[in-house]
Amino acid sequence: MNWLGSLQQLGRAVMLPTMALPAAALLLSVGSLPWSAWGFGILGEITQAAGHGVFYYMPYLFAIGVAWGLSNQGGPAGLAALAGMFIYDQVISRLGDGSVQPSTLIGIIFGVMSGYVYNRFKHIKLPEAIQFFGGSRFVLLFMGLFSTIFAWIMLGMAPIVQRGFDAFYELTVHMGAFGLFLYGILYRVLTAFGLHHLLNNVYWFQLGSYETEDGTIVQGDLPRFFAGDPTAGDFMAGLFPIMMFALPAIAFAIIQEAREDLKPKVKKTFMRSALVCFLTGVSEQIEFAFLFASPYLYVLHALMAGFAMVLTYSFDIHHGFSYSAGFIDYVLNFHLSQNAWMIIPIGIVYGLVYYFLFRWAIRTFEIPTPGREEGSALEGRAGDIPYQAPLILEALGGKDNIVQVQSCMTRLRLTVYNDRQIDSDALKLLGSAGIIKLGGGNVQVVFGTYSELIREEINKLMQQDLPRVLFSAPVQGRMLPIDEVPDDIFAAKLVGNGVAFIPEKGELVSPVYGTVMHVYPTMHAIGISTPEGLEVLIHIGIDTSQLKGPFTAVVGEGDTVEPGQLLVKFDLAYLKTHAASLATPMVITNPDKVRSWSYAPFKSVKRGQSSVMSVVLNESNAGGRES
C-alpha cells in the first residue's frame, strides 16, 4: 500500500495552495457591494482585481505549494518550481499562438518534479570545480533545464491534453445527475483516506473552460464560478446540504445517544464540532466519530451525499465556495449563485433525515460512538496542546520513530519507521478521532482543527534534546489530579508531585524503568528510583498502612523493573470496605529535579498504558534511559 502513502503526501501538498482562496472569495464579495452608488467605485474595482488576481496566479501558487509540501517545507524546492513556471510562461508566450496558457495541472507537475528532485538531490556533491551548482542549488539548475524542454514539448501537447480534459468534462456533463452522484460518493469515500483533494483538484480546477469578458481563459468548476460562468458550481452546490445540515445533525444524534454520565463532555465537544462544520465545512471530526465504529453507516452516508448532488443538480442550483461548503462561504458567494436559496429547505430535510436515521442506527445496532463507551470525545483546548504534545509524540513511538510529520486542517500526516510502535489507545485518550495506516510507514491521525498546532509542538520537541521521563499508568482505572486526592498530605503535594488513580482491578504495575528502592512492610506502597535519578512513590489507597493481608508484593528491593511489570497484587474488594479511599497517588518525591510536567486527560486509563505523565528534568542525564 505504499502508493497510498505517496498519494496522501501529494493530496496534502495539492491542498496547500487552496488556502489562498478564502481571501479571494472575501475580496470578490466585498467588491460586489454597490460601491459606485456610494461614491467609492474605485474600492470595488480594487477589490475585484485583487480577488481575481488570486485565481489568475493560481497555477503559480500550486507550483510553489506542491513543491513546498512534498519537500517537507523545503524553500529551494518552492523557489525552483516558481522559476520553472516563469520559464514555462515565457516560452509559451513567445512561441505559442495564445491557445496554451499556464494551468493548475502544469503548476502541479512543476511542483511534483521540483519536490522530487529536491528530496533526491539536495545533498548531491559535484566535482569541486562545479560544486557551486551542488546541493540545493542543483534543484534550481535542473528545473531551469526541465521547464525549458517541457514548455517546448507542451507547445504541441497542451492542445491535445486540453481536448482530452474537455472530452472528459463533456462525458461528465452528458452523464448528468448520475455523474454527480458518482462524484459525491467518491468524494466522501476518499475523505476517509485524506485523498479527496486529488479528486477535487481535477473537477474544481481543471475540468471545463470559460472565457471572461477580457479574454482570459479560466478552467475548473471553482475558478469558473468566481469568474461568472452561469454553468459552474455543479460540483460544489451539492456539498452545502451535507456540510451545513446533515453532518451537524449527526453530531446532535451522537449527543442524544450518549450515556447520561458522559453526555456533558460529549455535548461540549460535538456542539463545537457541529458549529465548526456548519460555519466552515470542516467535517472530519464528526465523520471519524462513526467511520471506524460503523463502516456500513459511513457507506450509507456516502450514498446519501451522492444523492444530495443529484438534488441540487435537478433543481438547477449553482453555488460555489472558496474553501468548503459551510455557511460562511454560502453567504459570501451568494451573489454569484443561482437558486441557492433552495439549499436551505433541502438541507433542513436532509438534517432531519440524518438525525433520526443515525439515532435509530446507533441505538439499534449499538454502535460505540463517543459517549456510549469510555474513550475520547475529541475534547481539548488549544491551551492544553503544549502539555499534551510530549505524550502524543510518545504515543507515536517517540521521536526516533518519526521520519516526517506534517498536517492538514484536521489530521496529522506522518511518515514513521514502524507504524506498529504507534499506541492507538493512548492517542484516542489524547483526543484522536481515528488513525489510518496507509502502509510504508504513512499514517494519518485525526485531531481535528488543532492538528496544525499539534504538529508545531511536535516539531519543537523533535528539535529539542531535553532529558525526559515518561510514565505509564500503574493501574487500570480513572486518573485524577493529585490535588483531588482525599488526603491533605498528598493533595498539598507535601510528599511529592504527580497524579493519582482510582483502581478498578487489584494489580499494580511499574510506570517506569528503574530499581525498586523500598517495599513497605505492609506492601501497601513501593518506591522506585529511575536511571535519571527520580524517586517515585506509588501508594495504594489512603490510610492503608495499617492494613495487613490485602497486599502481596511480587518484587523485592533491588529488583530492576520496566513499564507494565507487575509489582503488587491487592484485594480490591477488601480495600473498598476498609480503606478511607481507593485513591492511589503516583508521585515524584524529589520534584526539585523536574523542570516541567505534562499530563494526559484525566479520564479512564488501562494498566500499563503509555503515557499518562511526562516530566522534563532540570539536568541532562547522559546515562539515563527514557521510558
Protein topology:
Blueprint lengths: L1 H14 L5 H11 L9 H16 L1 H13 L4 H21 L8 H18 L15 H39 L1 H17 L2 H10 L3 E3 L5 E3 L1 H7 L6 H4 L2 H17 L6 H18 L3 H8 L3 H20 L12 H6 L10 H22 L20 H11 L6 E6 L3 E6 L7 H6 L4 E6 L2 E5 L4 H13 L4 E4 L5 E5 L6 H4 L5 E7 L3 E3 L4 E6 L5 E5 L5 E5 L11 E3 L6 E2 L4 E5 L1 H7 L5 E5 L5 E6 L4 E2 L7 E5 L10
Antiparallel strand pairs: 1-2, 3-4, 4-6, 5-6, 7-20, 8-9, 8-19, 9-17, 10-16, 11-12, 11-15, 12-13, 13-17, 14-16, 18-20
Which descriptors apply to this entry?
20 strands, alpha+beta, eight-stranded antiparallel β-sheet, disordered C terminus, 627 residues, 48% helix, Gyrase A, domain 2, four-stranded antiparallel β-sheet
Walk me through what this model shows:
It is a single chain. The chain has 627 residues and is of the alpha+beta class. It folds into four domains: 1-179, no CATH class; 232-363, no CATH class; 382-464, Glucose permease domain IIB (Gyrase A, domain 2), CATH 3.30.1360; 467-615, Glucose Permease (Domain IIA). Helices cover 48% and strands 15% of the residues. The protein contains 22 helices and 20 strands. Helix 7 runs antiparallel to helix 8 and helix 12 (240-256) packs parallel to helix 17. The two termini are 32 Å apart. It is found in: Cell membrane.
Count all strands and give the number.
Answer: 20
**Overall pLDDT confidence:** 84
Distance between the termini: 32 Å
Largest sheet: 8 strands, antiparallel
User: Structural class of the secondary elements?
Assistant: alpha+beta
Q: How many helical stretches?
A: 22
What count of structural domains? 4
- How much of the sequence lies in strands comes to 5-15%
Shape: globular
Strand order of the largest sheet: 15-11-12-13-17-9-8-19
Radius of gyration: 29 Å
Uncertain segments are 621-627
| Percent helix | 40-55%
Domain PTS EIIA type-1: 487-590
Main location: membrane
GO molecular function: kinase activity; protein-N(PI)-phosphohistidine-sugar phosphotransferase activity; protein-phosphocysteine-sugar phosphotransferase activity
Domain PTS EIIC type-1: 1-374
